[in-house]
Amino acid sequence: MAAKRVLLLCGDYMEDYEAMVPFQALQAYGVSVDAACPGKKAGDACRTAVHQPTGHQTYAESKGHNFALNASFDEVDPAEYDGLVIPGGRAPEYLTMDEKVLDLVRKFSDSKKPIASVCHGQLILAAAGVVRDRTCTAYPAVKPVLVAAGAKWEEADTMTKCVIDGNLVTAAAYDGHPEFISLFVKALGGTVTGSNKKILFLCGDYMEDYEVMVPFQSLQALGCHVDAVCPDKSAGDKCPTAIHDFEGDQTYSEKPGHDFALNTSFDSVDASSYDALVIPGGRAPEYLALDDRVLSLAKGFMDKGKPVASICHGQQILSAAGVLQGRKCTAYPAVKLNVVLAGATWLEPDPIHRCFTDGNLVTGAAWPAHPEFVSQLMALLGIKVCFA
C-alpha cells in the first residue's frame, strides 16, 4: 500500500514534462498518483505540448507524448487524497473556466493539503481565489494575473525558481522540477535517506525525451548529484531528443522533443567518482554503440559491479560492450535480438512497464516503466523515501 495518494490535475496540451516527471517520480518514491482530466475518464488520453525557448520572444510549442489518464475526473473525491499537483502548459487557460476544477482546488486549499503548481498552473490557483496574501512564483507571463489575484509575487530570476508558502509549492517551469518535487515530498511528510550518491547519465542525440529527463530529475529531486554527458560535447551543449509514442501504427512514431542541456563535459569524466550509470533509450544508442569510449565506460561500471540502469534501446550499448553474457535482462522488444546474441537470458516485458534487477543491472523496456526503473535503481543505491 502506498504511503500517500496524490491527484494530478490534467488537461489537453499541458506541458509534457510538467505532467510526466512528477507523475512518474512520485510513483517511484512509493506515492500513488491518480491523473484525471475534466470530461475524461480512466483510459482516455490527454495530448501534451513541448514548450521550450528557441531564441524568440516567447517559447515555442510542438506536440508531445499522449498522456494516459488512470482516473475518472467525475469520480475524484478530494478527501481521499493527500496532495494535489497542477502542471502548466496551455491546459490551465481553459481549466480556469471549469467550476468543477476551481471547486476541487478550493477544497484542497481549505483542508491545508499540499498543493504543487508549476508554470502556468498558477492561473488555476488565481481563478480559484486561493493565492491572496500567499507568496508564489510562476512563469513570468503569469505575474499580472497572480498580482491581480492578491498574491505576493516573487520574481523568477531563473527558470529553476521555486517558492514554498505553507502548504503551497510553486515553480516557474519544469527546469525547477528537482526542487519542486523535493519540496512537495517534504510537504507530504516525506524524508529521504541515502541520497548522497553521484550518478552519470550517458546521453546522445535523439535519445528518448522522457527516458532522459524523468530519471534525471527524479534522482536530482532525491538529492543525488547527477551529471549528464555526451561524446564530443561539453557542459552547456544540448542534445536534441525524440518523442517516441504509440499512435496506432505498427511501430512507435517519432516527434521532436525538448533539447536536453548537458551539465558535464564527456572528456572530463572520471568514471571512478560515480556510484551508478544510467543509459536512456531512443535512437542515440544505435550510434553510441559504435563509440569505443562509450563501450569502455559502460564496461567499466559493469566490471566493477556498480549499479547500471538501462532502458529501452539503451541495451544496445550493453550488448555491444559485451557485458550481458550470462545476465538476465529485458529491453524494448525489437532489441531482443541484440540482447540474446550478446549471451543474455531474455526476460519478456509483459506488461511493458515491467523492469528487472539482476545483480547490479536494472533493465526496463520503455518509458512507461520509469516508476519501477527508478525505484529499482534507488534500491541498489540504498536510497529510501519514507513518509510520516
From TrEMBL:
**Which parts of the sequence belong to the DJ-1/PfpI domain?**
4-186, 197-379
Q: Which domain of life is it from?
A: Eukaryota
Recorded hits in Gene3D superfamilies, A to Z, give: 3.40.50.880
Xref: CDD domains = GATase1_PfpI_1
According to the UniProt entry, the coiled-coil residues are: none
Which SUPFAM superfamilies does this chain map to?
Answer: Class I glutamine amidotransferase-like
Q: Name one Pfam family in it.
A: DJ-1_PfpI
**What are the TM regions of this chain, as residue ranges?**
none
Q: Which family does it belong to?
A: Belongs to the peptidase C56 family.
This one is known as DJ-1/PfpI domain-containing protein
Give the species this sequence originates from: Lolium multiflorum
